[in-house]
Amino acid sequence: MPVTYAARHVLEDHISGFEAAPNPHHVSILRSTVVISALAHAGHEADIEEALTNLEDTHLRFCAPGEWLVISDSVSAETIERYLRDLGPRLSFVDQSDGRVVLAIRGPRVRSILAKCTALDLHPDVFAIGQSTNCQICHVAANLARTGQDTFEIIVMRSFAGFLFDEISEMGREFALTAGFA
Fold it and tell me: Are 77 and 57 in contact (CB under 8 A)?
């Protein structure tokens, strides 16, 4: 008899039995976000950034000069890759969807929670809505983006997702941080 494998999210065991109705401070684990790493070849950074910015129903996360993460909850990886291939040899890209986990954290004191685990200045005047950067969060390399007034997204490598999730849960305990799958 053949063995059947069920797809499980890497954080399934971390949250199973603890998933709660959202409080004002909440971490949402996004299940099916497409994450594609894109790297512009030298001399093409500006035109590639413009082309990526114009891609509908996606969000662009800055990683480094000429390097971005293209993410989407509604456009398939195949569709994004087709678009990127059409940009020609000015760009290299790879689908990272299976290797990355996306967490959305929100709440009126979200900056206080994140301040416990990152050295970034997250004041609204410094870290604007739409801004993103690679950084250390709880000693783990991640990409942090401010997506709303009191909302941030964290993109982390799959192998570090459990540790990061547990640490953020601990940092948010004083604010009654809840968590669940989006």
Answer: no
49-to-24, 32, 60, 133 alpha-carbon distances in Å: 35, 24, 9, 15
Assigned CATH for 12-31+98-181? 3.30.1360.120
Token pair in block for residue 3: 């063995």
| Cβ contact 145:67 at 8 Å | no
Report the CATH number of the 34-97 domain: 3.30.70.100
12-60 confidence digits (pLDDT tens) = 888 876 666 899 999 999 998 999 999 999 999 999 999 999 999 999 9
* Amino acid identity, position 88: G
Q: Please state the pTM of the whole predicted model.
A: 0.92
Cα–Cα distance, 159 to 100 (Å, whole number): 8
Sequence ranges of the domains in the chain: 12-31+98-181, 34-97
